[in-house]
Protein backbone atom coordinates (compact mmCIF):
# COMPACT_ATOMS: atom_id res chain seq x y z
CA UNK A 1 0.00 0.00 0.00
CA UNK A 2 1.30 3.44 -0.88
CA UNK A 3 1.91 5.81 2.03
CA UNK A 4 -0.69 8.27 0.73
CA UNK A 5 -3.28 5.46 0.75
CA UNK A 6 -2.16 4.45 4.22
CA UNK A 7 -2.58 8.05 5.44
CA UNK A 8 -6.05 8.35 3.94
CA UNK A 9 -7.15 5.08 5.56
CA UNK A 10 -5.47 6.02 8.84
CA UNK A 11 -7.32 9.35 8.99
CA UNK A 12 -10.62 7.65 8.17
CA UNK A 13 -10.23 5.42 11.23
CA UNK A 14 -10.71 8.33 13.63
CA UNK A 15 -12.89 11.42 13.83
CA UNK A 16 -11.63 14.77 12.56
CA UNK A 17 -9.99 17.09 13.20
CA UNK A 18 -6.69 15.20 13.31
CA UNK A 19 -3.67 16.58 15.11
CA UNK A 20 -0.09 15.95 14.01
CA UNK A 21 2.53 17.74 16.08
CA UNK A 22 1.55 21.40 16.05
CA UNK A 23 -0.78 21.23 13.06
CA UNK A 24 -4.39 20.22 12.76
CA UNK A 25 -6.04 18.67 9.72
CA UNK A 26 -9.70 19.38 9.04
CA UNK A 27 -11.98 17.52 6.61
CA UNK A 28 -11.32 18.49 3.10
CA UNK A 29 -8.07 18.47 3.94
CA UNK A 30 -7.45 21.89 5.44
CA UNK A 31 -4.28 22.42 7.40
CA UNK A 32 -3.72 25.04 10.13
CA UNK A 33 -1.72 25.54 13.29
CA UNK A 34 -3.58 23.59 15.98
CA UNK A 35 -4.33 26.77 17.93
CA UNK A 36 -6.00 28.44 14.93
CA UNK A 37 -9.55 27.91 13.71
CA UNK A 38 -9.74 27.23 9.94
CA UNK A 39 -12.72 29.57 9.51
CA UNK A 40 -10.82 32.53 10.98
CA UNK A 41 -10.76 35.10 8.17
CA UNK A 42 -7.55 36.62 9.51
CA UNK A 43 -5.56 33.52 8.60
CA UNK A 44 -3.18 33.94 5.70
CA UNK A 45 -3.84 31.50 2.88
CA UNK A 46 -0.49 29.83 2.25
CA UNK A 47 -0.75 28.54 -1.30
CA UNK A 48 2.81 28.96 -2.45
CA UNK A 49 5.53 26.44 -1.80
CA UNK A 50 8.16 29.05 -0.90
CA UNK A 51 5.94 30.61 1.76
CA UNK A 52 5.26 27.18 3.24
CA UNK A 53 8.95 26.30 3.35
CA UNK A 54 9.63 29.64 4.99
CA UNK A 55 7.03 28.85 7.65
CA UNK A 56 8.63 25.49 8.38
CA UNK A 57 12.21 26.72 8.42
CA UNK A 58 11.93 29.88 10.53
CA UNK A 59 10.21 30.75 13.77
CA UNK A 60 8.26 33.95 14.55
CA UNK A 61 11.50 35.78 15.37
CA UNK A 62 13.06 34.76 12.05
CA UNK A 63 15.40 32.22 13.67
CA UNK A 64 16.21 29.02 11.79
CA UNK A 65 14.52 25.97 13.27
CA UNK A 66 17.26 23.29 13.33
CA UNK A 67 14.91 20.63 14.68
CA UNK A 68 11.62 20.23 12.78
CA UNK A 69 10.12 18.30 15.68
CA UNK A 70 10.69 21.18 18.09
CA UNK A 71 7.68 23.27 19.10
CA UNK A 72 7.57 26.81 17.75
CA UNK A 73 5.72 26.61 14.45
CA UNK A 74 4.22 30.00 13.62
CA UNK A 75 0.46 30.53 13.77
CA UNK A 76 -1.87 32.55 11.52
CA UNK A 77 -1.93 30.54 8.28
CA UNK A 78 -4.06 28.00 6.45
CA UNK A 79 -3.30 25.50 3.67
CA UNK A 80 -5.85 23.81 1.48
CA UNK A 81 -8.16 22.29 0.62
CA UNK A 82 -5.48 19.75 -0.27
CA UNK A 83 -5.47 16.43 -2.07
CA UNK A 84 -4.31 13.50 0.06
CA UNK A 85 -1.04 13.50 -1.91
CA UNK A 86 -0.45 17.19 -1.18
CA UNK A 87 -1.38 16.72 2.47
CA UNK A 88 1.15 13.90 2.71
CA UNK A 89 3.80 16.10 1.12
CA UNK A 90 3.05 18.95 3.53
CA UNK A 91 3.33 16.62 6.52
CA UNK A 92 6.59 15.27 5.15
CA UNK A 93 7.99 18.80 5.00
CA UNK A 94 6.70 19.68 8.46
CA UNK A 95 7.81 16.46 10.13
CA UNK A 96 10.21 14.55 7.87
CA UNK A 97 9.65 10.82 7.84
CA UNK A 98 7.01 10.94 10.56
CA UNK A 99 4.11 9.36 8.64
CA UNK A 100 6.31 6.65 7.12
CA UNK A 101 7.70 5.86 10.57
CA UNK A 102 4.23 5.69 12.10
CA UNK A 103 2.98 3.43 9.29
CA UNK A 104 5.94 1.09 9.76
CA UNK A 105 5.65 1.14 13.55
CA UNK A 106 1.94 0.34 13.59
CA UNK A 107 2.42 -2.60 11.24
CA UNK A 108 5.38 -3.83 13.28
CA UNK A 109 7.87 -3.34 10.48
CA UNK A 110 10.10 -0.98 12.45
CA UNK A 111 12.23 -1.47 15.52
CA UNK A 112 14.00 1.32 17.41
CA UNK A 113 17.78 1.56 17.14
CA UNK A 114 19.40 1.60 20.60
CA UNK A 115 21.60 4.60 21.27
CA UNK A 116 24.71 2.44 21.70
CA UNK A 117 24.29 1.20 18.11
CA UNK A 118 23.78 4.73 16.75
CA UNK A 119 26.84 5.97 18.66
CA UNK A 120 28.99 3.07 17.40
CA UNK A 121 28.27 4.09 13.81
CA UNK A 122 29.51 7.65 14.34
CA UNK A 123 32.78 8.90 12.96
CA UNK A 124 34.47 12.30 12.97
CA UNK A 125 33.21 14.85 15.45
CA UNK A 126 30.39 12.61 16.71
CA UNK A 127 32.62 9.63 17.46
CA UNK A 128 33.00 10.92 21.01
CA UNK A 129 29.33 10.06 21.68
CA UNK A 130 30.45 6.42 22.03
CA UNK A 131 31.92 7.44 25.36
CA UNK A 132 28.67 8.75 26.76
CA UNK A 133 27.89 6.76 29.92
CA UNK A 134 24.56 4.90 29.84
CA UNK A 135 23.52 6.60 33.07
CA UNK A 136 23.72 10.04 31.38
CA UNK A 137 21.16 9.13 28.72
CA UNK A 138 17.91 9.55 30.70
CA UNK A 139 18.79 13.13 31.70
CA UNK A 140 19.76 14.01 28.13
CA UNK A 141 16.57 12.48 26.73
CA UNK A 142 14.55 14.45 29.27
CA UNK A 143 16.31 17.71 28.49
CA UNK A 144 16.60 17.45 24.68
CA UNK A 145 13.72 15.21 23.61
CA UNK A 146 10.99 15.40 26.23
CA UNK A 147 11.31 19.14 26.89
CA UNK A 148 12.48 20.29 23.48
CA UNK A 149 10.88 18.06 20.86
CA UNK A 150 7.39 16.90 19.95
CA UNK A 151 8.60 13.51 18.79
CA UNK A 152 8.28 10.58 21.14
CA UNK A 153 11.65 8.82 21.50
CA UNK A 154 11.52 5.02 21.39
CA UNK A 155 15.21 4.23 21.19
CA UNK A 156 16.08 4.64 24.88
CA UNK A 157 13.34 2.30 26.13
CA UNK A 158 14.07 -1.38 26.87
CA UNK A 159 11.40 -2.89 24.57
CA UNK A 160 8.79 -0.42 23.33
CA UNK A 161 5.74 -1.93 21.68
CA UNK A 162 3.24 -0.33 19.30
CA UNK A 163 0.16 0.62 21.26
CA UNK A 164 -3.33 0.89 19.90
CA UNK A 165 -3.31 4.65 20.11
CA UNK A 166 -5.65 6.70 17.97
CA UNK A 167 -3.47 9.79 17.70
CA UNK A 168 -1.00 10.40 14.91
CA UNK A 169 2.00 10.40 17.22
CA UNK A 170 5.33 11.71 16.02
CA UNK A 171 7.65 8.83 16.78
CA UNK A 172 11.43 8.85 16.95
CA UNK A 173 13.05 5.43 16.41
CA UNK A 174 16.68 6.60 16.48
CA UNK A 175 18.68 9.44 18.05
CA UNK A 176 18.84 12.29 15.53
CA UNK A 177 21.80 14.47 14.60
CA UNK A 178 20.53 17.27 16.77
CA UNK A 179 20.58 14.92 19.76
CA UNK A 180 24.07 13.68 18.84
CA UNK A 181 25.27 17.25 18.53
CA UNK A 182 24.03 18.09 22.02
CA UNK A 183 25.16 14.74 23.48
CA UNK A 184 28.62 15.29 22.02
CA UNK A 185 29.20 18.28 24.27
CA UNK A 186 28.22 16.20 27.31
CA UNK A 187 30.40 13.25 26.29
CA UNK A 188 33.38 15.51 25.69
CA UNK A 189 33.02 17.35 29.02
S1 LIG B 1 16.32 12.24 19.17
FE1 LIG B 1 15.08 13.50 20.51
S2 LIG B 1 15.35 15.58 19.74
FE2 LIG B 1 15.96 14.19 18.08
S3 LIG B 1 14.09 13.88 16.87
FE3 LIG B 1 14.23 12.23 18.37
S4 LIG B 1 12.95 12.92 20.09
FE4 LIG B 1 13.46 14.73 18.84
In the CATH hierarchy, the architecture of the largest domain is: 2-Layer Sandwich
End-to-end gap: 47 Å
Count every beta strand, where a strand is a DSSP E run of 2 or more residues. 7
- Determine the number of helices (DSSP H or I, runs of at least 4 residues): 7
Q: What is the rounded Rg?
A: 18 Å
Reading off the top of the CATH hierarchy, the class of the largest domain is best stated as Alpha Beta
Integer count of domains: 2
Instruction: Give the uncertain stretches in residue-range form.
Output: none
What is the typical, i.e. mean, pLDDT? 92
Bound molecules: iron/sulfur cluster
The class by helix and strand makeup works out as alpha/beta
Query: What is the succession of H and E elements?
Result: HEEEEHEHHHHEEH
- Major sheet strand order: 1-2-3-5-4
Q: Indicate the overall shape.
A: globular
Give the strand content: 5-15%
Helix content: 25-40%
- What is the subunit organization of this protein? single chain
Report the sheet with the most strands, covering strand number, pairing sense and barrel closure: 5 strands, mixed
**Remind me, CATH topology of the largest domain?**
Gyrase A, domain 2
